[in-house]
Amino acid sequence: MSARTYDPVKRVIDVVGALVGLLLTAPLQVVLAVLVRKNLGSPVLFRQLRPGKDEEVFELVKFRTMLETDPVSGLVTDADRLTGFGKLLRATSLDELPSLWNVLKGEMSLVGPRPLLVQYLDRYTDQQRRRHEVTPGITGLAQVSGRNALTWDEKFGLDLEYVEKRSLSLDLRIIVLTVARVLSRSGISDASSPTMAEFRGSESIRD
Description:
The protein has helices at about 5-40, 80, 85-90, 100-105, 150-165, 170-185, 205, and strands spanning about 45-50, 55-65, 110, 135-140. By secondary structure, the protein is mostly helical. The chain has one domain (about 5-200). About 30% of the residues are buried.
């Protein structure tokens, strides 16, 4: 089965997977919502516009993991705003559970390149832009290969590899590896930042 032939099958798997995931995690998501409200305040959900397939922008939904920016209290950088509770949500990927709604709506897939920021669109090379040929995912090849510990060029290389080689067997392998990475909490951040450093363009572009 070719990559393009697999896409309709992949969508069926996404719908079934998202429905089952939402039903099974509903009680947990209620508890997490209460904990987020208690530890981080309102809003409970983090919403942000992200580019999806063919660069069509959609609203990504996740559980909030950071405090609001407050210069008076010294809450300015991501490191300042990311609490121990927020780190736990990210390390366990529990913050991603609401994104199953994005999958159900067809804006995301269970597996695919992670949806990045809208402002990155004009910084991509033609090759990097190909990551938008497929629906973005909750997890992906880059996430199970190092997550935020990878450089941007390494992540984009893995995204392109997924675009070209996507298949049922690859998706199943990525899902299994995702569970293993979450349990080991490996590759959550790079060495210099509690979150992934901003993408400013490839070295070849900046040079």
